[in-house]
Structures are given as structure tokens and as C-alpha cells.
Amino acid sequence: MPDIPNPYDAYFKGMMSREENAWSLLASYQAKEIVDALEPGVAELVLCSYVPDHLKEYFADVMLRCRSRNGNRYIYNLFEHKSCPEKFAVLQILVYMALHWNQQEDKSEGLHLIVPTIFYHGEKPWNAPRNLRECFVNVEPVFLPFIPAGDVNFIDLSTISDDEVRGIDAVKAMVKILMPRNPEDILFSIETALRTLGPSADRRDLFLTITFISYTKNVEQEKLAEITRDAVSPQGAEMVKTVYEQGVDKGIERGIEKGIEKGIEKGIEKGKVEGMLDMIADLLQIKFGPDAASCMLSVSSVQNIDALKAIHRALFESADFEQFKSHLSKLGVSAQL
Fold first, then answer.
1. Going by fewer Cβ within 10 Å, which terminus of the chain is more open, N or C?
2. What residues are paired with 38 via a beta bridge?
3. For residues 2 and 184, what is the distance between their CA atoms, to the nearest angstrom?
4. pLDDT value at position 141?
């Protein structure tokens, strides 16, 4: 399968990159008093480029920019999803908020208002702090005023049933597939999620969901294709085939094959590169249609396997072709169209 270090992060961020999905998540699961203070239907994913490279593995939060109902300011909703309790998750979120404020260009009207939320979908009960003050122990009362409250909203998927899942179909499907399940219920959760998406599923949402399932659920390709065919469409089943077949393992296999033919180490590396390029070309067409394949002229000039993995990750996370081109530019690749 393709090299995606954290498929949970990639899936959540990919699904939230569509404004319709982002607003539905907010409206369905955020506190009512917060939702009531926001302009309906407006939730834009903010790409946060200010996190230093050495910290990026720790910060994969989703920041959604909304407008207040009276229209006089932006409200930033920060979602950090967790699959297991983390003692200092609150601190992680507050550091992320501080990075955002530190890089905020215009502070003439104060700092951005950020509403932090933990979106928990783990099996174990959450027994970690839910605010910053809970991270301290045995503090004398005289010092308490100097500790920021650091309150964080908390959404716990383990406390809701399938009947209580809310939102538009794409968000319902995402929640159903993220909800903690017993091993014997995995196929049921996959089927219900895909049936929720249904034949009218957005192509990108379906691609993200199938790819996420292939990474995180112990299900054979043939079984997933069968479920997808019945729940979505024959075209969806073909997408399953492509997702499984166009993985990095295949690229490596092609690399070794070509390397053996040439009998030299460079042949192996070249084959890996060619296999990865084939995979990127196929996924470009699946996700954005045949017109997007025209940028492969620029991508094909990249011959470093790590750089190609970065391009693949950008392709997986991008909501649309324009965003993918922006990612390419940041990676030093100019999309030639």
C-alpha cells in the first residue's frame, strides 16, 4: 500500500477539506451554543504551514475557519482527533494554538479566537486531562491563578450509537468507520459506512474512505470490492481494485524486477521510482479526472523516491486539483498544464 505515515490524520483532514463536510461535522457535533454563534454553512479548512518540520509528526490537527453570525470576525475551530487517550493532548493543542497566534500576521484587532476540540474515536475510556489545569498536580491554591484554564471541548464517539450518528452522508460514513468496534463488527461498520455514502457518493469522499479502510481494517481486497459493489456501485469496486493494486509494494516489486533485469543497484531504485510514478498517475486520474494527468510531465521529472512519496501524500490530502498544484509548488514542482 502507499506510504501514508498516519492514515487516520490523512483521512480526517481529507474529508474535512470539503467545506460541506466540514460544516456538517461542526453543526452536528460541536456544542449548540458555539454553532448558533457561527454563520451557517461556512467552514474553510486552513492549511497550517507554520509548524516547524521537526514538529509536524506531532501536529496533524484540522483547523476550520468560520465566520461569526454577525459577520464581524472569523472563528477558528481546531479539531484534534485521537484514537487513544493521551495524557498531554491538551498541551499539544495549546502549543498548536500558540504557534498559530505567533505566526498571525495582523494582530491589530487582537489574536484569532480559536475553539479547540478533541474528536475521540478510541476504544478505551478517555482518562486524560480535558483542560490544562488538570495537567498539574498538587498545586498550592496561591499559584492556581497563574495556570491558564486551557479548556477543550470533547466529542467522544464511543458514547454514541449508530442511530445517533448525525450529519450529511459523507460525515455519517466517516463517523461510522471511525467509531470503535469489536473485531467481529468490522465488516458491519464497513458496509454501513459505504451504504451511507451510496451510489451518489462524491468521488473524493469514496476514494478517501476506501483507501482508509484498506489501511486500517483487516479486510481482503475481494471482500471489500464485493461490499463496495453492493453498497455503492461497480465503479466503486473498480476503485477498490486500483487502490490495492497501485500501492508502494507494487512499486517496490516493479523496482526489484527492473533491478534484477539490469543487475545493478541503480536499476532497483529506478524501478521503484517508475512504479511510484505509475501509481501517482493512476491516482491522479481517479481523484481528479483525466485532465489532471497533464501535470505528470512535471511530476515525472522527480526521480527521488522520498520526494515522490511526499507528492503522493499531497495528492491523497488535497481536496481538489488546485490545492494539489499548490502542494506541488511548495514541494518545488511546477505543474505544467
1. C
2. 68
3. 27
4. 93
Residue with cell 456501485: 233
d(CA 305, CA 184): 38
Q: Round to whole Å and give the CA distance between 96 and 112.
A: 13
Q: Which of 72, 21, 73, 69 is nearest to 45 (CA)?
A: 21
Q: Tell me the per-residue pLDDT of 302-318, one tens digit each, with 9 for 90 and over.
A: 777 778 888 877 877 77
Q: Which helix (H) or strand (E) holds 244?
A: helix 234-245
- DSSP-derived letter for residue 111 is P
Assign residue 175 a region: left if phi > 0, alpha if psi is -120 to 50, beta otherwise? alpha
Here the cell at position 200 is 451518489
In angstroms, the CA 82 to CA 221 distance is 27
User: Tens digits of per-residue pLDDT, 70-109?
Assistant: 877 899 998 888 888 999 999 989 988 888 898 888 888 8
DSSP string, 17-84: TSHHHHHHHHHHHS-HHHHHTB-TT--EEEP---S-GGGGGG---EEEEEEBTTSSSEEEEEEEEESS
What are the residue ranges spanned by the domains of the chain? 7-160, 181-245, 250-330
Distance CA 331, CA 288 (A): 19
Helix, strand, coil fractions of the chain, as percent rounded to 5: 60, 10, 30
Pairing between β-strand 153-156 and β-strand 62-67 as defined by DSSP bridges:
unpaired
Handedness of CA 9, 62, 51, 83 (dihedral sign): negative
Q: Please give the average per-residue pLDDT across 30-55, as a whole number.
A: 77
Give the chain's length.
337
Task: Identify the residue with better confidence: 138 or 326.
Answer: 138
**Phi/psi at 81 (nearest 5 deg)?**
-95, 140
